[in-house]
């Protein structure tokens, strides 16, 4: 339980978390960057950023489908 509390106190910014989540959606990440992310990102921020990323991805797909079907 103390590991979870320690992990939630990590100091990486939300912007850095969004960047890491974007690269994970894209599927490209350097090993050094991955290791620094694993050590410094707040797990709560990662979950929130993942949900936001998924919502943005879905919105983009819906927009593309609407544009294609409309023509």
Give a topology summary:
Elements: H1 2-8, H2 14-26, H3 31-40, H4 43-70
Q: Any overview of this molecule?
A:
Helix content is 82%, strand content 0%. It is mainly alpha-helical and 71 residues long. The model has no long low-confidence stretch (mean pLDDT 81).
Short description:
The chain has 71 residues and is an all-alpha fold.
Please describe the structure with a list of short key phrases separated by commas or semicolons.
71 residues, single chain, mainly alpha, 4 helices
Let me know the largest β-sheet.
none
Q: How far is the first residue's CA from the last residue's CA?
A: 55 Å
- Total strands: the figure is 0
Q: What is the overall silhouette?
A: elongated
Taken together, the total number of domains comes to: 1
Fraction of residues in β-strands: under 5%
Low-pLDDT runs: none
Following the backbone from N to C, one meets helices and strands in this order, namely HHHH
């Amino acid at each position: 339980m103390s590991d979870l509390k320690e992990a939630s106190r990590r100091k990486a910014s939300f912007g850095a978390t969004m960047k890491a989540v974007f690269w994970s959606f894209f599927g490209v990440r350097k090993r050094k960057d991955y290791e620094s992310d694993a050590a410094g990102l707040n797990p709560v921020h990662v979950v929130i950023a993942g949900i936001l990323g998924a919502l943005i991805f879905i919105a983009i797909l819906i927009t593309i489908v609407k544009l294609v079907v409309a023509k």
